[in-house]
Fold this protein.
Amino acid sequence: MKPHNIRGETFKHCFLSLGFTEGEVVTPVEVQTIMIPSKLQICLLIAGYLTYLMVGASIFQVLERDEDRKQQAAVLRMKEDFLQNFSSLTPVEVEIFVKKLTEAVRMGMDPTGNENSNWDFSNSFFFVGSMLSTIGYGNLSPKTAGGQLFCVVFALFGIPLNIVFLHHIGKILSLLCERLAKCLYRKGVKKKTTRVLTLLFFLVMGILVFICVPSVIFQVMEDWTYSEAIYFAFITLSTIGFGDYIIGRQQSKRYFPYYRMLVAIWIIFGLAWIALLFNLLTNLLEDPDAKPAEELLPVKPSTRRKRKSKGCPADQFPLENGL
């Protein structure tokens, strides 16, 4: 008996896998045997990925912290010189000062005299997370030659690692959807209804967990409107990354420790969900003339045949043939 691959490649594959044929459904013991190495692999991947992020954040912090302090001091000196001599400055000199100050702010410098570093561990972790996810807000970047070269090497290996990580997180989400579908089918729900309910559950829970609830937190922490928070969440998770809204940058606010670090973790897991969502929408748009529900979630006629395999009684199978 050939075991069914329960780790679907995409969300579409997750639902297509509900059309089990005879001989492809595994017993609970076989499912457990298949999943044990997979669980170990996922745990090792998560640990390795987080370690890679933390090591990268620490190295960027060491490479960029001193240079950041020098640039912050230079901006403050420029501001002090302007305040002492602004009455005698020509319009051209004022224009030069404004351009330099605008460039300093664009590069992440704080001209207000705030002593918070742009390259503490929390900010560095947020930077490496947004870099590997290819969001690229543009408000923070390495300035030293060592930091820039390390950025190239770190991203060269980190972006493929990020893709592999998101791929496995997507498999976990697909597996959860499949388990839900199996549970509904055992309770007597029809196959077509099961697939539609599982699809709705994936969409609604994903929107709540990765969009709506985080947006409430951003609204409180950043003093944004709820629509601005929703906008930021989607622009971030879709990796558009305009950079017009960035968390943790208001100098008048006191953020709790590792706020930006937790946001980086939210981004990483949110990317896995929205990648599956985009894949689903792509599949629905590939054939606009077809009925989306039937095209994506084909319903095969259910047949109930007596299994002839010895040692595999029918009550061992959690699902009937033709789910």
About this structure: Confidence is low (pLDDT under 50) at residues 1-12, 22-37, 290-323. The domain at 11-19+37-297 is CATH 1.10.287.70 (Helix Hairpins). The radius of gyration is 26 Å. DSSP finds nine helices and no strands in the chain.
